[in-house]
Amino acid sequence: xxxxxxxxxxxxxxxxxxxxxxxxxxxxxxxxxxxxxxxxxxxxxxxxxxxxxxxxxxxxxxxxxxxxxxxxxxxxxxxxxxxxxxxxxxxxxxxxxxxxxxxxxxxxxxxxxxxxxxxxxxxxxxxxxxxxxxxxxxxxxxxxxxxxxxxxxxxxxxxxxxxxxxxxxxxxxxxxxxxxxxxxxxxxxxxxxxxxxxxxxxxxxxxxxxxxxxxxxxxxxxxxxxxxxxxxxxxxxxxxxxxxxxxxxxxxxxxxxxxxxxxxxxxxxxxxxxxxxxxxxxxxxxxxxxxxxxxxxx
Length: 298
Known about the structure:
3-stranded antiparallel β-sheet, alpha+beta, 4-stranded antiparallel β-sheet
C-alpha cells in the first residue's frame, strides 16, 4: 500500500508507468475509465487534437484510434497545470523537486526518486517540465519558464530522433532564449474599451416617453472571459472587435445579451465581454397608449 502523494511524486519525477496505472485504477476503477476522464478533461480545457488510451502515455490503439496528442495541446495542458488549475501550486512544488524519498504505508520499504527534468537547472526561472519517450513518439519534453512576469512554454516531440536523447535540453534552451528576446508582455487592461461603440440603442415598439418618441436603452459591458496579459512578438497586435446590435425590439429584459466584444490576437479570443441591457422595457400595447392619451387630455 502506498500514499497517493508519494505515487504522484514517483510518476512525475521518475516517469514510473506502474504508478500511473495504480493511480488510475484507484481513482476510476479501471485504466479505461480513467482515460475517459482524461479525455473529458482535456476537451474541457481546450485540447482539440488529443485522444488518451493509456494513463501513462504508452503507445496504444483502440479500434481505429491511436493514443495521440500534439505539441500545441501539450503546451495547453502545461499552461493549465501551472496557471489555471486550482492545484497549480501543488503541481509546481511536485515537479520542481530535485529528489524525493518515501516508504510504503507499513514503512518497511523505502524508495528514492530523482527528477529527470534537467532543464530545471539550466536556466533561471525554469519552474516545471516533464520528459517522455515511446518507440513511436521518440524523445519528448514539455517545459515552462517564468521571468519578469512572463511565462514561456516549450513542447518538443520526437526531438533528437533516433539516438540523441539530450537534444531536447539544448533545443528547449534555444527556444526559451528566442522567446525571451522576441516576445514582450502586453497587459490587456491597458487596452480601453471604446464606450461610444456601445452607446444607447433605439428600442422599437417600447413603452416610455411620449407616444411617437424614440425610446433608447443604455448598455453596459460585462466581463465573461478574462486573460490579464499576453505575449506579443514584433508586428503582432491585439485587436478589439465589437459585435453589438444597432437596435432592439421590445419587450426587453434587464441583463439580456445585446452583443459581444472580443479582444483578439489573430483568430484567438483572449478576452470577451457580453454587452447587456440595463433595464426592463415592455412592449407597446393598447392599455399603455390609452393611459398616455388620457394624460394629455387632463
